[in-house]
Write a structure and sequence with these properties.
- The protein is of the alpha/beta class.
- It folds into two domains: about 230 residues, Alpha/Beta hydrolase fold, catalytic domain (Rossmann fold, 3-Layer(aba) Sandwich); about 60 residues, no CATH class.
- The N terminus is likely disordered.
């Protein structure tokens, strides 16, 4: 702890943002994250950054099978916000990274579990002496988590980054058409339809086990029917919807549906930004290559849009 304080003091003296590890206990689980404060001692707004679906860590990096997809998108966003006088708190999801849980029962996880964790982190950031107000910003699936978490705690605003505008079942159906070989689309649809109706599937197709393994099915059942537009309509605070035009996973239609659901919501389209917040061509192979390239900067205009929204809030 002393070394962290010395490092933070040295960073402040040098005029650099100060990062420190933080943790919270939510139930029997201890969760870990990074608090990044702008240089100086002034009081500042803060943003809780909520990562997307799957095994995604605080920096926006994830694992697909044996492949590690390191892009540092959320880390870069936090650094960009700090440079503009905005604090941030980003965290490893329950069961991921430093928040790994020994003997975690995946079958016990529900979408509401992640919503409760995001609320707990919001309370933690609000307790920082330098933080004046807190905004929840969620990326991908985290956009829906942030939207729902904001309904149960005090926040100044909500930001969705590449968030779906339809229930997850509809989004997955769209993705099946481009991401799956033709022979897997029918069995994937049949399995998805059963789960969306609330029924588990005893023997999902082996080729789709990563997505539909039995232990994750209760979570999917809790998530698939939730309508992001309906949840956005419940918000009583300002909403910023940010969407890139070369996102292969969700599209402009999703963003427009989210924005239309909340009167007064602001919609920002970032030309050439993909799902991991990087500049990318529409070509699928080139686009996906950015998911594992941490050297690439964030797309132009993203940090400015987020920082401008946060700074303008009362």
């Amino acid at each position: 702890m002393a070394s962290l304080l010395i490092a933070a003091a040295a960073a402040l003296a040098a005029g650099a943002p100060a990062a420190r590890e933080v943790e919270i206990a939510n139930g029997a689980v201890t969760l870990h994250g990074t608090l990044l404060l702008p240089a100086g001692a002034a009081r500042v707004p803060g943003v809780v950054l909520v990562a997307g679906s799957g095994p995604t860590d605080r920096d926006g990096n994830s694992r697909v099978g044996a492949q590690v997809l390191t892009n540092d998108s959320l880390k870069r966003l936090a650094e960009g916000l700090a440079a503009r006088g905005i604090a941030s708190l980003r965290f490893d999801k329950r069961g991921i990274g430093a928040s790994a849980v020994s003997g975690l029962d995946e079958g016990s996880l529900r979408f509401s579990t992640y919503v409760a964790d995001a609320r707990a982190w919001t309370v933690r950031l609000a307790a920082e002496p330098r933080v004046t107000r807190v905004v929840l910003a969620g990326h991908s699936e985290g956009a829906l988590i942030a939207t729902m978490a904001a309904q149960g705690t005090a926040v100044a605003g909500v930001i969705t980054l590449e968030g779906a505008g339809e229930p997850a079942a509809a989004v997955l159906r769209r993705q099946f058409q481009t991401a799956l070989p033709p022979e897997l689309r029918a069995p994937a649809e049949a399995t998805l339809s059963s789960l969306a109706a609330g029924h588990t599937v005893a023997d999902p197709p082996a080729a789709l086990a990563a997505l539909f393994r039995p232990s994750v099915q209760p979570y999917l059942i809790s998530w698939l029917p939730i309508d992001p537009g309906a949840e956005a309509a419940k918000l009583t605070v300002p909403l910023l919807v940010v969407q890139g035009t070369t996102d292969l996973q969700v599209g402009e239609g999703d963003a427009r549906r989210l924005a239309a659901a909340k009167p007064g919501a602001r919609l920002v389209l970032i030309p050439g930004m993909n799902h991991v917040l990087k500049a990318a061509a529409a070509d699928r192979a080139a686009n996906l290559a950015t998911y594992a390239d941490p050297s690439l900067p964030l797309a132009d205009g993203l940090v400015e849009a987020v920082a401008g929204f946060v700074s303008a809030l009362p």
